[in-house]
Amino acid sequence: MLFALTGRVALVTGASGALGRHFCRVLHQAGARVALAARRPEAVAALAAELGEGAIAVALDVTQEASIAAALAAVQARLGPPAILVNNAGIAATRPFLEHTAADWDQVMAVDLRGAFLVAQATARAMVAAGQGGAIVNVASILGARVIPGVAGYAAAKAGLIQLTRQMAVELARHRIRVNALAPGYIATDINADFFASEPGQAMVKRIPQRRLGQAQDLTGPLLLLASDAGAHMTGSVLTVDGGHSINSL
């Protein structure tokens, strides 16, 4: 019962991606009414239908304030005021630093940091207006604390998101809104399957102390901890789920 989310309304951004879809399933199975948000709602309509009652698909472009306002209005009209936000939308531009363009930088920052800020702020305002408190989970990355070649914008954005999490936690605590970051390591998805099957990918896996990639289900418990009353005294925390990768100096 400590991890139950019965009756709470959750908004998940980036719901069309592999992790976003998993987060939506987890929250719905825990009893939440879930808004699956994506730039193209048709991309998540089938999942919303599969989840059934209490699950809706909404259009949301995290880079556009008008789109965020419209999505929150739809969520409140159809499900009720949000009590949980999973700020999951994110992109990456992969190229060496000397080839990383200003356009690459701007695009990643617009989604991964500015977009996360805009959605969190609008949702927090709705939570304050409802007077019920809430939980915000910003999906960061271990690359917010360590680096690998080729992802300058992404690493900088995730580092910024972690610091934004702490700032929000301090300011929103008086409104009974908890703000924490979930920082996954390398999680197996269809998109990265070919890379991790390659020689460089296998070498990277060998540097993980547990000697395996994370699976989406490895994030289930951590997500529920941060979203539910089980984490009632946690705010401003960064919960790392990476098989020990970020503490390994090799």
From TrEMBL:
Pfam families reported in the protein's UniProt record: adh_short_C2 (PF13561)
Domain of life: Bacteria
SUPFAM superfamilies, A to Z: NAD(P)-binding Rossmann-fold domains (SSF51735)
InterPro entries, A to Z: KR_dom (IPR057326), NAD(P)-bd_dom_sf (IPR036291), Sc_DH/Rdtase_CS (IPR020904), SDR_fam (IPR002347)
SMART domains: PKS_KR (SM00822)
Ketoreductase domain residues: 8-185
Family: Belongs to the short-chain dehydrogenases/reductases (SDR) family.
PANTHER family attached to this UniProt entry: BLL7886 PROTEIN (PTHR42760:SF135), SHORT-CHAIN DEHYDROGENASES/REDUCTASES FAMILY MEMBER (PTHR42760)
Stated name of the protein: SDR family oxidoreductase
Protein species of origin: Falsiroseomonas selenitidurans
